[in-house]
Design a protein that fits this description.
heterodimer; A: mainly alpha; MetI-like fold; B: Rossmann fold; eight-stranded mixed β-sheet; four-stranded antiparallel β-sheet; 11 helices; globular
């Protein structure tokens, strides 16, 4: 388990470095911040002073070396705009994104499991056709269009919901709906496919031969086996939510990491942008590790020793008591 | 079988050896396909008795497994029982709703599946799966069900059940998995055990062990066993009575010794002739010419007409019914009397 984590962390280091380098270089292509932060009539001298003060006159590799030197000391630089620590700003924005993405993903998974399983019970039945239509539509609608239509219909025309902001529960509805549809639509199709194949496996017949009710057969036997493919796709979709958050947070004025990224790009606030991207990349790596652990929790065949894991959410929900006994026997 | 834990398999009221446990009468099973409705099992009747083994014998696709699934109520959604009765200990299972039937699956009727290697659920420990029957039907706690699971594992001869109970199916050999499946089938002491090709996926040496286990369990609890197989040798060794199936129909029934000793139906005769016995090296193996009719092309008249050496006009027009032949045999052939003559040896 520890070896696994260590290996994952080491192997994530290089991709993270590449991500930050890329953002570092691309950000600087947007132009010199001096032209944004100084008055229009600033003199050449003022521009040069500003550039020098922020180290922007150095060649880009010197800037990079400086930056990474700082990163090693956990100093991610300061915001040009506010002078505040870039890391602090990114960390402050992150929970808002996490709440939004987490709630959305939870809803998408729960709804998709219900709708997908329901559709799989009778392939090509009426429920299957309806859910297929809905999920296709949900997966194909672009989020920015949906966000704008949502604001237009529910916020402006009907006035039921606020157009943007974070005040109260109603403010959650439009951002979540906008983010929800795509993961929901894709997951319904994955869950349905995995359930159809899982329900035709011999172990389903075995469960029925023991007198298991249809509910038990579906929830205990089929769903647990269908969970692995759904988990893979859910992981990808969760990563996609972070991208979606950039659009949705900007449109709805949600103070998360996506909005922070857009704002810092527009304001050439390089340190903040880099901190936000790095934090997002790290969270995606952590998500991937969690997904791998999730597999191990779901299916003993992918565990290194083939035994019950010491800690895994998926398995601990199923049989919390029995595991304790087993931990002692695990080498 | 090391120590005997009777509680695991003892039925509530002991069966008397030889009493009728299962009576299947005129069972029809239809399959819905894009080409139309096919009759997979046609007017099948047989009886299984306590403490005895009935073999359903036939080639692949003859409807023997379908018959077993219909009896167990485990038909695929595309197949339906469209006629007949399945009376298990006085209850007509075919008349029950699927929900009512769940109560019988396990306590009254156990089934051992063909593919031991894939029949177990890969994501649960064998202990969880063995205990499931007790959780469902007796409402036992997880802990109590696990104790029962360990008992069952010991009962079917799995070594070190206390530690193996937490292992997953992929950590067992094929033979051990089949033992686990058998343990599941007999967990609640069913009156009837259906064994659907229980040894097909296993090594020969393991086959013998599994058949011995089934025999021991049968002797212990007097349950009736329905053995589904295409293996003539297995039928000869294990079964008391046999029902020979061809293209969805039962063509001959009777005590194994009598049926194999003097087959009355030309198909049974052909099957027995294809067993290579007393043949020298280099001699041609005998087989029945042709192949069984496809389900959507089953002819009117006798189902065996296209391959039968005795075929006459009457066979093409009228399907022979299963008629009593002697005291305890039945056969469905217009020429059953002549089919044990030497005529067939010239085929």
């Amino acid at each position: 388990m520890l070896t696994f984590l260590r290996r994952r962390i080491v192997s994530s280091a290089l991709p993270l470095l590449v991500v930050v380098l890329g953002v570092f270089a691309l950000a600087r292509l947007t132009g010199n911040p001096a032209s944004l932060y100084l008055p229009l009539n600033a003199t050449e001298q003022m521009r040069a002073d500003f550039t020098e003060k922020n180290g922007l006159d150095n060649p880009i590799w010197v800037q990079m070396a400086d930056y990474f030197g700082g990163v090693l000391r956990l100093d991610f630089g300061e915001s040009l705009r506010t002078g505040e620590s870039a890391a602090a700003m990114a960390l402050r924005a992150f929970p808002a994104t996490l709440q939004l993405a987490g709630t959305t993903m939870l809803l998408a998974v729960v709804l998709a499991v219900i709708v997908g399983s329901w559709a799989a019970l009778k392939p090509n039945g009426i429920a299957d056709r309806i859910s297929s239509f809905i999920s296709m539509a949900a997966a194909s609608v672009p989020d920015f269009w949906l966000a704008i239509m949502g604001i237009w219909v529910f916020a402006i025309s009907l006035g039921w919901l606020p157009t943007s902001g974070v005040g109260g529960l109603t403010a959650w509805v439009l951002p979540i709906l906008t983010l929800l549809l795509r993961p929901f639509g894709v997951l319904v199709q994955i869950v349905r496919g995995a359930m159809v194949s899982s329900l035709s496996e011999p172990y389903i017949k075995l469960a029925r031969s023991k007198g298991a009710s249809e509910f038990r057969v579906v929830t205990r036997h089929a769903l647990r086996n269908a969970a692995a493919p759904a988990l893979t796709v859910a992981g990808d979709l969760a990563v996609g939510l972070v991208n979606g958050a950039v659009v949705v947070e900007s449109i709805f004025g949600w103070p998360g990491i996506g909005k922070l990224m857009i704002d810092s790009i527009l304001q050439r606030d390089f340190a903040v942008l880099q901190a936000a991207v790095l934090l997002t990349a790290i969270s995606i790596f952590i998500l991937n590790i969690l997904i791998d652990l999730g597999y191990a929790g779901l299916d003993a065949r992918v565990r290194p020793n083939g035994k019950r894991p010491k800690s895994s959410k998926a398995a601990s929900v199923a049989e919390p008591k029995e595991r304790k006994v087993h931990v002692q026997t695990t080498p | 079988m090391t120590s005997h834990t009777q509680t695991a398999t003892a039925p509530r009221d002991q069966l008397t050896e030889g009493e009728v446990v299962l009576t299947v009468t005129g069972l029809d099973v239809d399959i819905r396909t894009p080409k139309g409705v096919l009759r997979a099992v046609n007017n099948v009747s047989f009886e299984a008795r306590a403490g005895r083994t009935l073999a359903l014998l036939g080639e692949s696709g003859c409807g023997k497994s379908m018959t077993a699934k219909a009896v167990a109520g485990l038909l695929d959604p595309v197949a339906d029982v469209t006629g007949g009765t399945v009376v298990l200990n006085g209850t007509d299972l075919a008349a029950l709703t699927p929900k009512q039937r769940l109560k019988y699956a396990g306590p009254e009727l156990g089934i051992v599946f063909q593919d031991a290697l894939t029949a177990l659920n890969p994501v649960y420990t064998v202990g969880t799966q063995l205990g499931e029957a007790f959780r469902i039907h007796q409402g036992l706690s997880k802990k109590a069900a696990k104790v029962k699971a360990i008992e069952l594992m010991r009962h079917v001869g799995i070594p070190q059940p206390e530690s193996r109970v937490d292992s997953f199916p992929h950590q067992f050999s094929g033979g051990m998995r089949q033992r686990i499946l058998i343990a599941m089938a007999v967990a609640l002491g069913p009156r009837l055990l259906i064994a659907d090709e229980p040894t097909t996926a296993l090594d020969v040496t393991v086959q013998a062990q599994i058949m011995k286990l089934l025999r021991d369990l049968r002797t212990e609890s007097h349950m009736a066993v329905v053995l589904i197989t295409h293996d003539l040798a297995l039928v000869a060794e294990e079964a008391d009575t046999v029902a020979v199936m061809y293209a969805g129909n039962v063509v001959e029934t009777g005590p194994v010794r009598e049926v194999f000793g003097s087959p009355k139906h030309p198909y049974t005769r052909g099957l027995l002739d294809s067993v290579p016995a007393d043949v020298g090296r280099g001699a041609d193996l005998k087989s029945i010419a042709g192949s069984p009719p496809e389900l959507h092309r089953i002819p009117e008249g006798c189902v065996y007409q296209s391959r039968c050496p005795l075929v006459q006009d009457v066979c093409r027009a009228i399907r022979p019914a299963l008629e009593p032949e002697g005291t305890n045999r039945t056969v469905a052939c217009h020429f059953s009397a002549s089919s044990d003559t030497k005529e067939l040896d010239n085929v």
